[in-house]
Amino acid sequence: MKIRINDKECEAQIGDRLLDTARTNHGHIGYFCGGNAICQTCYVRVLEGQELLSPMSDAEKSMLSDTLIREGIRMACQTTIEKAGTIRILSEVEAVKQMVGSNPLAAPAYMGKMGWESAVKFTETIAFQARREQGEYKLELWQLFTDVVAGIGDAIQLVIDAVQSVFSAPPVATTKTEQPENLTVCCGSTAENHTCCSNGNGKTVSPEFVRLHQHSTVSCN
After folding, report:
1. Within this chain, do residues 155 and 201 fall inside the same structural domain, yes or no?
2. pTM of the prediction?
3. Distance between CA 125 and CA 166 in Å, rounded?
4. How far is 46 from 104, CA to CA, in rounded Å?
5. Which helix (H) or strand (E) holds 89?
6. Are residues 9 and 106 in the same domain?
7. Range of the domain at 215
8. Mind listing the pLDDT tens digit for each residue in 24-59?
9. Distance between CA atoms of 184 and 42, rounded to whole angstroms?
10. What order do you get walking across the sheet with 88-91 strand by strand?
11. 34 Cβ contact list (under 8 Å, min separation 6)
């Protein structure tokens, strides 16, 4: 199946995390912690298909404010695709990029809002991280390290792809002008009226070729 991440069509399978789908397709989603529900940079806004995704996880409930949840914000590292259908998401990092490009003056207000929404969940977030020594959210240090390294590698590749897309302009097509061979122009003909003008093979040539011939050193015969 296909889902759309930041207006980019991505291949996905039922059971995939949104974060993994973005990473596989080089989508623009932040994930400094490698997808372990620590850094809170993988926020995405579900524009369509919320009902096709997994229910809100305990990690999301601990880190996302009620306001962000109402706005359709999810954590891509905690959200999986459960049903096939139309899914469209916009990552918050991409939303900020678009905002800075179109209306940079709106960025401070956005940062203030997100800071506030994080602050109101600070106590619950710390409590969630503190009890991660057991259960499904238990962190393995080696796994965390490898996930972070993989995340950095994916981020670097994303930057490389972006740079290449900017500097790899398509080559300019050049048109090669075919030179007529053994062109014979009837005396008195013009470039606009060349019914008796032909090349050496007896084929009618274009007015452009006639003009070229008339400006050449070949004499009219």
Report:
1. no
2. 0.64
3. 39
4. 23
5. strand 88-91
6. yes
7. 178-221
8. 898 888 777 878 888 888 999 999 999 999 999 999
9. 73
10. 8-11, 2-5, 88-91, 43-48, 73-75
11. 144, 146, 147, 148, 149, 150, 151
Is 30 domain-assigned?
yes
What is the Cα gyration radius of the chain? 31
Residues 153 and 206 in one domain: no
CA 185 from chain center: how many Å? 57
| pLDDT tens per residue, range 52-102 | 999 999 999 999 999 999 999 999 999 999 999 999 999 999 999 999 999
Question: Are both 157 and 203 inside the same structural domain?
Answer: no
Question: What's the distance, Cα to Cα, between the start and end of the chain in Å?
Answer: 70
CB contact at 8 A, 184 and 190: no
Yes or no: say if 44 and 76 are a contact pair by the CB < 8 Å rule. Answer: yes
